Every structure is written in C-alpha cells, then in structure tokens.
Amino acid sequence: MAKVKDIFNTVFLTELSTKLQTYYPNFDHDKFQTFVFQNDWDSLEFKQRVHRITTSMHRTLSFTYKETLSLLYKCAPEFEGLQGIIFPEYVAKYGQENWDESMEALAYFTRYSTSEFAVRPFLQADLEKMLTQMFTWSEHPNEHIRRLASEGSRPRLPWGNTVLALKNDPSQLLPILENLKADESLYVRRSVANNLNDISRTHPDMMIERMKEWHGKNEKSDWIIQHASRTLLKQAHPEVLALFGYQSADLIKVGQFNIASNQVAIGGDLTFYFEVFSKTTTNLRVEYAIDYVKKSGKRNKKIFKITSTKIEENERKTYSRKQSFRNMTTRTHYTGVHVLSIIVNGIKKASCEFEVINLEKE
Predict the structure, then answer these.
(1) Which fold has domain 4-243?
(2) What φ, ψ does residue 69 adopt, rounded to 5°?
(3) pLDDT digits (tens, 9 = 90+) for 275-316
(4) Are 183 and 147 in contact, with CB atoms under 8 Å apart?
(5) For 160-191, how does the pLDDT look when each residue is reduced to its tens digit (9 = 90+)?
(6) Could you say which residues form the signal peptide (predicted)?
(7) Sheet harboring 263-265: ordered strands across?
(8) 257 in Cβ contact with 274 (< 8 Å)
(9) Distance between CA atoms of 197 and 258, rounded to whole angstroms?
(10) Do 4-243 and 249-357 fold alike per CATH?
(11) pLDDT value, residue 361
C-alpha cells in the first residue's frame, strides 16, 4: 500500500527542480538533489520529507526571503494538492521576521494546497496578532482562505504543531467561528465542524452552548453542529442527544441479533445482523461498538455510526454490517476475545463476544 510520504518521490523532485530552473536558470539541480536524497531519505516520514525539501530549497537558492517568495509564487500553481504544502512550509520556517509578507504568502499558497500547518508557528509566536489575522481571513471572499482561518486554528489539528493556548482556552476562536457559522462553502463549513468537534473534546460545555445558540437558526449552521457533535453523540451526552430529538431508548428493542461466525480471522470480516423495533415514534441513532483487544491484552472501545433516521410507532428496521479486520496503518488487530455491542440513542441494547484468530503461521 502506497504511503502518503511517497508523493514526494524522484519524479516530483525532478519536476520541482525543472520548474525552479524555468524561473531561475541558475538553480543547481544536482546540488538540490544531493541535499534532499541523503542516506536517510527512505526512512523519513511525511512531515520530515516536507522539512527536508524546504530546507534543501533554502540551501540551494541564494536569494533573500522576499526574492525567494517571488520565485515560489510562480511555481506554486503548478503543484496543487498535498505536494504543494512545501511552499507554505517554507514560509513557516523562514518567514517569522517578515510578518506582513508571510501573511500574504500563506493566503496565496493555501489556494493551491493548504497553509493550515504553516500558520501554527505564527500562532505560537504571537497568538493575539495571528488570531486577528485569521479573523480577517474569515471574511475573505476566497473559500480557501476562509477555511484557513478555521482549519489552521483548530485546537487539535492532526499533524499540526500544538498551540497549547488554544487547547486551554478555545473561547478565543469563537469570533472566527461565528463569522463562518453559515458559510456558503461546504469546504469551509466542514472545517468549522472539525474545529468545534476539537473544542468538544476538552470543553464540552462551550461546544454545547454554541450548539444551543446556533440550532434551528439556519440550515447551514444546523449542518455544522450536527457534524461537530459526533464525539459528544458517541459519548451519549444527554443534552446533545436531547437537542437532536433522540429520546430515551426504553421503548426501543433490539432483536434478531446474530453474527455470521463467532470466530474472525485477522484479514477477514465480521458480518452481523439485527433488528430494531420501537413502541413509539422517535428519532433514531443506531451505532455499533467493538471492544478491540490491544497488544497489552486490554480492550479499547471504538464506536461506529450506522444511521440517524426516524422510526415510527411499532415499526421494525433491519440492519446488516460487515466490519473489516484487515490490518491498517491506523489499526493493528490482535487475537483474543472481542465484544460487539449495538447502541441505540446512546444506550447499549445488545452485545455478544467473538474471537479474533490468526491463521497465518509464525
């Protein structure tokens, strides 16, 4: 399986060198490649490769920071997507002393890739000044720049440098999120939802207060809070369940619960079936949970959503699911007794054990 770090390969580095030479004929391709492809290149992970490429560009170019930006402005449109992250990364590493030029560059480069990681050192260096800048970006006509205001300021941005002040006090982000709560762009609204979901992990009351203020005012805001509530819903937070109309599960029954086999091989699938019956009309949130055996032998619960829907009085709904037990970069499976549970409106209604086995010989 290809790894994300492999987007930075020989073909990419050759294309980058060629493009740099187009706008700067004296660019030393061989010197650049030597800096990049040191003996440890194959072992470098994604962010380490980004760091290596940007520092190698810096070592190869003999320009001032502002002159280098002019060159990178010309190259960036040719490298859209994740590969283009090297350009805002250059700003993050070498632009701290040129704040105004760096802000313009981050806004420019994010249109072609993303500057969400590159803003983090600036947040760490001067939080108040950078949040003011991001508030301004939240009013920008370009959706990529508006998204940067929200995504770059997430308290728990994956792969992003930690900004402890935002984790400890995410209320500083609320003016930005308020500006974007009914944004026309789904791309932006999804980022706002991710930001609020981050907040809910450490400051659930702050998130719930925001939900109550936004709920029912605008369909775009409603979409945001629905997606921002995923962690609190999985935690069966009573206020959040009630806000979305998920009543008590006392009058809801789960029956016909079966698994295809009580043994699942690593690399195989767990298939299961069940039926939901309700004695009353209500909103219905159906999930299943698996208590995975960890390497230590302890268990770790993971919850998966099946559906959010409405069920009528005396109605029956039937569900079937297949859960993969193939090893992935994000999850390694171990042998032992696991537990499968069916959860309705935040309440576990049925469960059974099954064994995960390893058919491969050591």
Answers:
(1) 1.25.40
(2) -60, -40
(3) 999 999 999 999 999 999 999 999 999 999 999 999 999 999
(4) no
(5) 999 999 999 999 999 999 999 999 999 999 99
(6) none
(7) 263-265, 347-357, 336-344, 282-293, 299-311
(8) yes
(9) 34
(10) no
(11) 55
Per CATH, which fold does 249-357 belong to? Immunoglobulin-like (2.60.40)
pLDDT for 228? 96
Which has the closest alpha carbon to 87: 75, 101, 96? 75
What are the sequence ranges of the domains in the chain? 4-243, 249-357
CA distances from 346 to 197, 210, 238, 249, 314 (A): 18, 21, 8, 8, 20
Token code pair at residue 71: 């060159």
Q: How far apart are CA 153 and CA 192, in angstroms?
A: 10
Place of tokens 């006509």: 141
